[in-house]
Amino acid sequence: MSGRTQARACPERTCVGCRARAAKSELLRIVAVGDACVPDPRGTLPGRGAYVHPAAVCVDKAVRRRAFPRALRSPGALDTAGLSDAVAAVAAAAP
Ligand SMILES: [Zn+2]
């Protein structure tokens, strides 16, 4: 992989919903699969990722300000209809 080097110790990402910085491990990675946004809780899907708190309020904010297509560099709109439910399911499954 190329690109910017990240500090190894505690990688931080910005939540695209509330714009707060948080440890990567506290955020949920979202990737675009086709033209839909899907959560990637294990961080294994290829491509760009957007990070959001696994909370409905942050997902809703991100969807409303169209942060996902921007963060994921999508040329068109992304389907986020199922994202809130998917994130809720991931959050519920988390310990
Ligand atoms: Zn947030």
From TrEMBL:
<dbReference type="Pfam" id="PF04296">
    <property type="entry name" value="YlxR"/>
</dbReference>
<protein>
    <submittedName>
        <fullName>YlxR family protein</fullName>
    </submittedName>
</protein>
<dbReference type="InterPro" id="IPR037465">
    <property type="entry name" value="YlxR"/>
</dbReference>
<feature type="domain" description="YlxR">
    <location>
        <begin position="13"/>
        <end position="75"/>
    </location>
</feature>
<dbReference type="InterPro" id="IPR035931">
    <property type="entry name" value="YlxR-like_sf"/>
</dbReference>
<dbReference type="InterPro" id="IPR007393">
    <property type="entry name" value="YlxR_dom"/>
</dbReference>
